[in-house]
Amino acid sequence: xxxxxxxxxxxxxxxxxxxxxxxxxxxxxxxxxxxxxxxxxxxxxxxxxxxxxxxxxxxxxxxxxxxxxxxxxxxxxxxxxxxxxxxxxxxxxxxxxxxxxxxxxxxxxxxxxxxxxxxxxxxxxxxxxxxxxxxxxxxxxxxxxxxxx
Length: 149
Fold this sequence. Notes:
Layout: H1 11-19, H2 22-33, H3 39-65, H4 74-93, H5 95-119, H6 126-147
Helix pairs in contact: 2-3, 2-6, 3-4, 3-5, 3-6, 4-5, 5-6
């Protein structure tokens, strides 16, 4: 396959991906800078946002395999719902433990994408996905650390 055959993220995709990091970074910063009375709202907002983004990352797998007609691989379909279910579990765990689960889940999503994307000529998206994962998971870890002070 030629590199030209790869679907690359557009500049708009890069900008929107970066904009999607604003809640992660802003809410993690709020947990460090806001008074303790504001921590429950900020941590729940960060946890909820992380769960939603994780669900979105799983759904991408369904979108990709939907193009395969009846030959939709069951592992991709199963993985596609797994981040939603684990995001829901993270919400049930509560603030700091849930944020730790979301951070791990974001990396699991990246690992799954590393397996799926090349098979569908999407390898060029992996650098963007990597940096989005670094910042998003780092924000969740920072948020969990702030709650443990």
